[in-house]
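User: My instructor asked us to take a sequence, write out its structure as tokens, and then describe one feature of it. I'm not sure where to start. Here is the sequence I was given:
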Amino acid sequence: MDKQLDHIGVAVRQLQESIDFYQNILGATMIDRYRSETPGVESEIAIMDINGARTELLCPTNNTTSPIARFIKQKGKGVHHVAYRVENLDEAIKFLKNDHIRVMEDTRRTNKHGRQLIYLNPADTEGTIIEFCDYPDEK
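Assistant: Let's start with the prediction itself. The structure tokens for your sequence are:
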């Protein structure tokens, strides 16, 4: 199963300050900025591009229920997850399960850009939050 790095998600406390840093210091272009109140997301997201490398800045919108807020409270701001693009998400999930790698079924969703995604259980990934994703509309 082929994989390639899709993006890195970074948990931040102040979205605009982070956007300014990425644009003014790193030379990034903002691809999109949107708010998602979907349970299990509850964040404002800015997608930044630096020469084809994408970073998603994730700022919690609900400090009680947002997983990003929980992450910041437990680990502080910084890299939240690493996302790998796969050819077919359903096949990738079967592959993982055959290797006894658990996925977090409640995280499966399609975002506003048509990206289907699911997170792997960090207990099976040495504690790293890993996302697998595909873009079925591009096929």
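For the description part of your assignment, you could build on this observation: The longest helix spans residues 15-24. Try explaining in your own words what that tells you about the chain.
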